[in-house]
Write a structure and sequence with these properties.
Number of domains: 1
CATH architecture: 3-Layer(aba) Sandwich
GO molecular function: hydrolase activity, acting on ester bonds
Bound molecules: 2-acetamido-2-deoxy-beta-D-glucopyranose
CATH class: Alpha Beta
Oligomer: single chain
Number of strands: 15
Number of helices: 13
Distance between the termini: 28 Å
Structural class: alpha/beta
Protein name: Phosphoesterase-domain-containing protein
Keywords: Hydrolase, Signal
Shape: globular
Radius of gyration: 20 Å
Length: 405
C-alpha cells in the first residue's frame, strides 16, 4: 500500500506528530491506529431516476439452488424481486469484489494482498464526481481506514474482517485519508443510522461468520434477515428513503459449474407491483456499477460496466435497453465464469500491463469520466483496449482477444 504509514499530525491528540501503520495487524498496532483513526460520515441528497439510495450486501460462496432454498433468504426475496440469472465473474472471492466496483477483475485468480494502482478508477470516483455520498460498512473492521489483511475476533480467534472482501480498500485510488475515513465497521452503520447520516451508496460486508464463508448459508440467511428485517420497516431514521437494496453472493461454491448466484432486490424503491416477482435477465457484478451509473446519470469507467445489463426495475426508468445472453443463462451454457483470464493480477504473470479503459464508449449518453480519458485516452494506449459496449464478458475459457488464458 502506498500510503500504509500516515503521519496524522493534525489528528493526533498530542501536539507531537505520531506515525501509525495502517496495514499492521498486531493488537498493539491496531489499538494505536484506532486512537487516531478519522471517521467521516458524509451525506448528500442527489435525486436518482429510480432510487435515491443504493445498498449492496454481499454474502459468500453459495450455489444458487442452495441459497434459493434457505428459508430466511426466501422470506426476504418474497419482499422484493428475485434475480434468477445473476452471475459471479470468476473465482475466488477477491477478483469478484474488485470487479463489482472497478469494471474488471484484471485477471486476478487469487486472494492475495493485491493493490490496483492509483490510476485505476472505480465507482467511488464516479460517485464523488456527482457529489453522491458513499461509505463502506465492513463488519468487525477494527477502525476506519484499516488496511491490514485481516482482523480476527480477539476473544474467539475466529476469522472476522478480511481485506479480500473489502472492494474499495484494494484500489490505491481510495487510500487517501479522506477516502479511508469512509471505510468503517458495521457498528458505525448503526451510529450513522441513528444520526441520520447514512450515505447514498454503501457496500456492506458481513464478517466471515455472518456472510456464510466460515459457516453456512443457513447462518448467513439468519444474519441477513436479522439485519434487514427491522430496516425494511424503518421510517424513523430514513434508511428507507427511496432505497434499493441488492443482496447477493460473490461466487458459486462449485467451481466446476457455472457461477450463478442468488440475487435479490429489496427496499421501498421496488414498485409494489413487482414485489414477489422474478427477473430472469442476465446480470453479473458489473450490473452493480451500470445500474448506479444509469440511475444517477454518472459517467462510466469505460470497462465492462458500460455494456452490463441494468436491473430492469431501474432500466425501465432510465430508458436503457438490456440484452439477453443465452450462452450464459441457458440450461447448457457455454460460458461458466469459473476461471480468470490472463492479466496483471493473474498468478501466471504472462501479462504485465493493465488494460486501458475504452475511453470512446458511450451508453445512452453516458460518457467515460474525464479523468479516465485524460489518463488513458492516448491513441498509443487505446489501440490495446479490449472493452466494448457489450454484455458479453470474458472469462478463462473465453479470454479477451489477444490476452491468452
Ligand atoms: C507496517 O506493518 C506491516 C505489517 O505488519 C509491515 O510489514 C510493515 O513493514 C510496516 N510498515 C512500517 C513502515 O513500519
Ligand atoms: C469501529 O470503528 C471505530 C472507528 O474507528 C472504532 O472506534 C471502534 O472501536 C470500532 N469497533 C470495533 C468493534 O472494532
Ligand atoms: C437466528 O438464529 C438464532 C439463534 O439460533 C435464533 O434465535 C433466531 O430465531 C434465528 N432467526 C431467524 C430469523 O432465523
Ligand atoms: C468450469 O466449468 C466447466 C463446466 O462445468 C468445466 O468443464 C471446467 O473444468 C471448469 N473449470 C474449472 C477450472 O473448474
Ligand atoms: C452452481 O450454479 C450452476 C449454474 O446456475 C447451477 O446449475 C449449479 O447447480 C450450481 N452448483 C450447485 C452444486 O448447485
Ligand atoms: C498506471 O499506473 C501504473 C503503476 O504505477 C503504471 O505502470 C502505468 O504506466 C500507469 N498507466 C497510465 C496510463 O498512467
Ligand atoms: C499501439 O500504438 C503504439 C504507439 O503507436 C505502438 O507502439 C503499439 O505497438 C500499438 N499496439 C498495438 C497492439 O497495436
Ligand atoms: C482521487 C483520489 O482521491 N486520489 C487519491 C488516492 O490516494 C492517493 C494516495 O493516497 C492520493 O495521492 C490521491 O490523491
Amino acid at each position: 500500500m502506498h500510503s500504509s504509514t500516515l503521519v496524522l499530525s493534525a489528528l493526533a491528540l498530542s501536539s507531537q506528530a505520531v506515525a501509525v501503520n495502517l496495514t499492521a495487524t498486531a493488537a498493539a498496532d491496531v489499538a494505536a491506529a484506532r486512537a487516531s483513526a478519522l471517521t467521516l460520515s458524509p451525506t448528500s441528497n442527489v435525486k436518482g431516476k429510480a432510487f435515491d439510495r443504493f445498498v449492496v450486501i454481499w454474502l459468500e460462496n453459495t450455489d444458487y439452488d442452495k441459497a434459493a432454498s434457505d428459508p430466511n433468504l426466501v422470506w426476504l426475496a418474497k419482499k422484493g424481486i428475485t434475480l434468477s440469472n445473476y452471475f459471479g465473474v470468476t473465482h475466488p472471492s477477491e477478483p469478484n469484489y474488485v470487479a463489482a466496483i472497478g469494471g474488471d477483475n484484471f485477471g486476478m485468480d487469487n486472494d492475495n494482498v493485491n493493490n490496483l494502482p492509483g490510476n485505476v478508477s472505480s465507482i467511488i470516483d464516479l460517485l464523488e464526481d456527482k457529489g453522491i455520498s458513499w461509505s463502506q460498512y465492513q463488519e468487525d473492521m477494527p477502525y476506519s481506514g484499516f488496511e491490514g489483511k485481516a482482523w480476527i475476533n480477539q476473544q474467539t480467534k475466529a476469522n472476522d474482517y478480511v481485506r479480500k472482501h473489502n472492494p474499495a480498500i484494494i484500489y490505491d485510488a481510495n487510500t487517501s485519508q479522506e477516502r479511508l475515513a469512509k471505510n468503517k465497521n458495521l457498528t458505525q452503520f448503526y451510529s450513522d443510522l441513528e444520526a441520520k447520516k447514512l450515505p447514498q451508496w454503501m457496500f456492506i460486508t458481513p464478517s466471515m461468520q455472518n456472510d456464510g464463508h466460515d459457516t453456512s448459508v443457513t447462518f448467513a440467511g439468519n444474519w441477513t434477515r436479522s439485519f434487514l428485517e427491522p430496516l425494511l420497516d424503518e421510517k424513523h431514521h430514513h434508511f428507507m428513503a427511496n432505497t434499493l437494496i441488492l443482496v447477493t453472493f460473490d461466487e458459486n461454491h462449485t467451481y466446476t459449474s457455472s457461477n450463478r448466484v442468488l440475487g435479490m432486490l429489496l427496499g421501498d424503491a421496488v414498485p409494489k407491483k413487482l414485489i414477489g416477482t422474478t427477473d430472469p435477465q442476465y446480470y453479473n457484478h458489473y450490473s452493480e456499477i451500470s445500474t448506479v451509473e444509469a440511475n444517477w446519470n454518472l459517467h462510466t469507467l469505460g470497462r465492462w460496466d458500460v455494456g452490463a445489463n441494468i436491473f430492469s426495475v431501474v432500466a425501465d426508468q432510465t430508458g436503457d435497453t438490456n440484452t439477453a445472453w443465452d450462452a450464459a443463462t441457458s440450461a447448457n451454457p457455454t460460458h461458466f465464469f469459473n476461471t480468470s483470464f490472463a492479466g496483471l493480477f493473474n498468478s501466471d504473470r504472462q501479462v504485465v500491463t493493465l488494460p486501458p479503459p475504452n475511453t470512446k464508449l458511450v451508453r445512452n449518453g453516458r460518457k467515460v469520466l474525464g479523468r479516465i480519458v485524460r489518463t488513458w485516452g492516448d491513441e498509443s494506449l487505446q489501440n490495446q483496449t479490449y472493452y466494448q459496449n457489450t454484455v458479453q464478458i470474458p472469462d478463462g475459457m473465453y479470454p479477451p482477444q489477444g490476452w491468452a488464458n
